[in-house]
Amino acid sequence: MSHELLVLVTTENEDQARRIANALVEARLAACVNIVGAIDSVYRWEGRVTTDREALLIIKTTDERYEALERRVIELHTYSTPEVIAVKLERGSSDYLSWLRDSVS
């Protein structure tokens, strides 16, 4: 049984977000990717608190496709340690979830 996932990835800008999103959907690693532009991220990096303007990818996939998706994001990403966080979806429209599974298989 496949579980649907929501994967969050921050990128350095919207251009990089678009490149990653297109690659994931074209490779059927993601059914859909939403790009949320111009977010402010505050985080600790190399011992300092840092603030950056980033873009956020909201990726819909399945756990069966996650490992390949993570590898592809890391290959395409410019960060040495990109954020790739997956959360299992608890509920959703049955039609949408069916479409999601079909889109990545």
How many DSSP H or I helices? 3
Q: Estimate the strand proportion.
A: 35-45%
Query: What is the CATH architecture annotation?
Result: 2-Layer Sandwich
Strand order of the largest sheet: 2-3-1-4
Helix-strand topology string: EHEEHEH
* Domain count: 1
- The fold-level CATH name is Alpha-Beta Plaits
Q: What would you note in describing this structure?
A:
There is one protein chain. The model has no long low-confidence stretch (mean pLDDT 95). Strand 2 and strand 3 form a beta hairpin. The longest helix is centred in the middle third of the chain and has 14 residues, at 63-76. Helix 1 crosses helix 2. The protein contains three helices and four strands. It has 105 residues and is α+β, with helices and mostly antiparallel strands. The chain has a four-stranded antiparallel beta sheet. The protein has a single domain (4-103), classed as 2-Layer Sandwich (Alpha-Beta Plaits), CATH 3.30.70.120.
